[in-house]
Design brief:
Cytochrome Bc1 Complex, Chain D, domain 2, alpha+beta, Cyt_c-like_dom, 9% strand, three-stranded mixed sheet, 13 helices, electron transport, transport, Cytochrome c553, 34% helix, signal
Length: 319
């Protein structure tokens, strides 16, 4: 499930389009659309019971990989999960809490759901179902969401949406500006640092990695992330977001702190990798649906650098 960057990027209408179309024609950046390598193999389950901090629970890798059983490491953090969130419905509707975690923080590979309105979650699921929501590059996570959206019932969706909407959003990302970043590899649809301390130039990228990879693999809903962004990105993004056409202000849609209003979801402290994909998908035409006609002419003028700066800034804010 995804949320739009929506109308706040109308503030960028005065940006020049130099190089923007060429970057789209070159194809989506691999760092934002990670794909498991052809020889990718998951770590085999040796039967070890895994644990995460501040939890008495324990699960094996096999249990953690069960798409019909969301691991609940911290049950006191949220209300009881509805059946559709905790276990889904076999054979087609996976447990929402598996991919999005028990109380909805998600990860770089998908959306965080807490803090979104129930109406918005339902709307976006419908757009997956009707084919309005796709990606600029093939992604397993999106394919799974499309499959689920076609099988979930209205009642199940309403229960899941109401549950995630009830959870107060929290920050789980630290944005760090850096010239050099850890070398990474794709590990099951997200970036993870290679063993050792070797680094490489960040270039024109966002490198978002879990603070503790094994905790994230264990689907710990309290897992945290470090998002490395190019030096100067946060200030550039803040400047771009404030460079508003007087007819359309960011605050009108998302509020002065980007934490959302009655007409648009909060976008502060969301995964910058995920948010970048939304801007890029609007620009490429892969993402349609609500607000896409308003978004399209604006993102046409954004370069990849502009998008990186904008999402670096929004991710640095507190929800």
């Amino acid at each position: 499930m995804r949320f739009p960057t929506a109308l706040w990027v109308f503030s960028l209408a005065l940006l020049t389009p130099a190089g923007a179309r060429a970057q789209i024609q070159e194809g989506p950046p691999a760092w934002a659309y990670p794909v498991n390598p052809p020889n990718f193999q998951r770590t085999p389950d040796d039967g070890t019971i895994r644990h995460v901090p501040d939890s008495a629970a324990g699960f094996t890798l096999t249990q953690l990989r069960d798409l019909f059983a969301a691991p609940d490491w911290h049950p006191d953090d949220h209300l009881p999960m509805p059946e559709i969130v905790a276990r889904g419905r076999k054979p087609e509707v996976f447990a929402c809490g598996v991919c999005h975690r028990a109380d909805g923080p998600g990860g770089p590979e998908n959306a965080s759901l807490f803090g979104l309105s129930a109406e918005y979650i339902i709307q976006q699921t419908a757009e997956f179902k009707t084919g309005l929501r796709t990606n600029s590059a093939s992604r397993v996570a999106t394919d799974l969401m499309i499959k689920l959206s076609k099988a979930v019932t209205d009642q199940e969706l309403a229960e899941a949406a109401g549950y995630f909407a009830s959870i107060k959003p929290r920050s789980n990302i630290v944005v760090v500006e850096a010239e050099a970043v850890p070398k990474t590899q794709v590990r099951d649809l997200f970036l993870a640092p290679l063993d050792g301390a070797e680094k490489e130039p960040i270039g024109q990228r966002i490198i978002e990695i879990p603070e503790n990879v094994e905790h994230f693999v264990s689907r710990d809903s309290r897992a945290r992330f470090i998002a490395y962004v190019p030096v100067g990105s946060v200030q550039k993004g803040q400047t771009l977001a404030a460079n508003s056409d007087p007819r359309v202000q960011c605050a009108v849609c998302h509020g002065t702190d980007l934490n959302g209003t009655a007409i648009a979801p909060g976008i502060a402290s969301r995964s910058p990798t995920y948010m970048f994909r939304q801007l890029y998908d609007f620009k490429s035409g892969a993402r349609k649906g609500a607000n896409s006609e308003l978004m399209k002419p604006v993102v046409e003028n954004l370069s990849v650098d502009d998008m990186i700066a904008l999402v670096a800034f929004s991710a640095s804010l507190k929800p």
